[in-house]
Amino acid sequence: MKTLRLFTIIMLAVLVLSTWTPAPVYAKGSNAAPSTSTTLVVDLAKTKLARLRVNNKTGGTLYVSFSGERGYSFSTSNQGKTTFEPVIQPGKYTITVRASACNGQLTFRRKVKGGTVSLPAFSCRRK
């Protein structure tokens, strides 16, 4: 009886300890033919990031989204000029702007190299 109890305690201890240790993971290589695509490696320490500057005159929240190789989203409810931190990596982007106080949206295409991306002032057309 003592042996069975000791064996049970040891098995429970092994089970508990095995769940806490990392399990080995094996990666399987691709069997497909080598790809001709190019991988882009960016050193963010050397890349000049761009910042976004907008002038919100809509009376509501302004939403700006960048789509391209990477995607970024910005929003501001502050009226007047707002400059966001530099986070935008260089590349070609489609910029979509919409406001909570206006109908519709505006779309721009820009090539970003660094520095500041300034967009024109946005206001809602009142009828």
CATH class membership of the domain at 50-120:
Mainly Beta
β-strand amount: 35-45%
Order of strands side by side in the largest beta sheet? Answer: 3-2-5-6
- Indicate the overall shape: elongated
Number of strands: 7
Percent of residues in helical segments? 10-25%
CATH architecture identity of the domain at 50-120? Sandwich
Q: What does this entry show, briefly?
A:
With 127 residues, the chain is mainly beta. The chain is built from one helix and seven strands. Helix content is 15%, strand content 39%.
Account of the protein in words:
The protein has a domain at 50-120: Immunoglobulin-like, CATH 2.60.40. 15% of the residues lie in helices and 39% in strands. The protein has 1 helix and 7 strands, in the order H-E-E-E-E-E-E-E. The protein has one helix spanning 2-20; strands spanning 50-57, 62-68, 72-76, 80-83, 91-99, 105-112, 115-123. The protein has a 4-stranded antiparallel β-sheet with strand order 3-2-5-6, with no helix packed on it. Strands 4-1-7 form a 3-stranded mixed β-sheet, with no helix packed on it. The N and C termini lie far apart (91 Å). The mean pLDDT is 82.
